[in-house]
Write a structure and sequence with these properties.
Blueprint (H helix, E strand, L loop, with lengths): L1 E5 L4 H12 L3 E6 L12 E4 L5 H8 L4 E4 L11 H16 L3 E5 L14 H9 L7 H15 L4 E6 L2 E3 L8 E3 L9 E3 H11 L8 E6 L1
Parallel strand pairs: 1-2, 1-4, 2-3, 4-5, 5-6, 6-10, 7-9
Antiparallel strand pairs: 8-10
Helix pairs in contact: 1-6, 2-3, 3-5
Bound molecules: NADP nicotinamide-adenine-dinucleotide phosphate.
NADP nicotinamide-adenine-dinucleotide phosphate binds next to α1, α5 and β7.
């Protein structure tokens, strides 16, 4: 397949790119710093910013599937998803590409933490989401609003805290809320799950929580 990847140079994006190449897919990646991208000779690298509609259109054109592991590099207000995801949706509509699998976050929706113990939920919603995760959560809420209204075949994969530990190959998934006491998962397991969605209709037009 021809796969367009946004956020290919990030922690999860690099794992996704490696997996796509290993599976024999042809990859187009939008990169702000292509010269620093370790897989630059193995992908069609498009130089540009995801907040630029022309660069996004060039990246999406001719692809069969779009993968996104985009996100701000800091916890500050960067508005990357707010600006980029509408461009991705517009480009997909223009080019007739229907499938997008995007990395979200377990904090994106009001009922995300409904299965957590009361005290955990209270602390996270009352304090964590109002302080240092305020802007990342706002960005993910925006990404969800854009994708769910897009009419595309979207899937949003919602993990809690990501780490760089080796994948376990075993994790819990849930279509309603983050599984109880789920607090972390490795980027490897998330990337593997996102790759599985390329061939699976199970979570089309849905979000899915994933955690160890
Ligand atoms: N970190 C966590 O614990 C956690 C937990 C749950 C969900 N998430 C979500 O998971 C996603 C990915 O996380 P991650 O830690 O794997 O990613 P990451 O390492 O922070 O990488 C972010 C990627 O987005 C790219 N990017 C940012 N702004 C861009 C722009 N304007 N134009 C083009 N590319 C841009 C970066 O490119 P450059 O290399 O050019 O900077 C990089 O490839 C984020 O949306 C985050 O909210 C993270």
């Amino acid at each position: 397949m021809k796969i367009a990847i946004f956020g290919a140079s990030g922690g999860t994006g690099l794992l996704l790119t490696n997996r796509c190449l290993a599976a024999g897919h042809q990859v187009t990646a939008l990169l702000r710093s292509p010269e620093a991208f370790p897989l630059r000779h193995r992908v069609d690298a498009i130089y540009g910013n995801a907040c630029d509609g022309h660069a996004v259109l060039k990246t999406v054109a001719d692809s069969d599937v779009v993968l996104s592991a985009l996100g701000a590099r800091t916890w500050g207000k960067e508005d990357v998803l707010e600006n980029a995801v509408p461009h991705i949706v517009t480009a997909m509509r223009q080019t007739g590409v229907r499938r997008i699998i995007a990395l979200g976050s377990a904090g994106a929706l009001p009922d995300s933490l409904d299965k957590q113990p009361f005290l955990n939920r209270w602390i996270v919603q009352r304090f964590v989401y109002n302080t240092f995760l305020k802007w990342p959560v706002a960005s993910q809420v925006s990404q969800y609003a854009t994708l769910s209204a897009s009419g595309l075949d979207w899937t949003m994969v919602m993990p809690p805290l990501l780490n760089n530990a080796p994948g376990r190959g075993r994790y819990r998934i849930d279509g309603e809320a983050l599984p109880r006491n789920g607090s972390r998962i490795s980027r490897e397991d998330v990337a593997d799950f996102m790759m599985q969605q390329i061939d699976s209709p199970q979570w089309i037009k849905k979000y899915v929580y994933i955690t160890w």
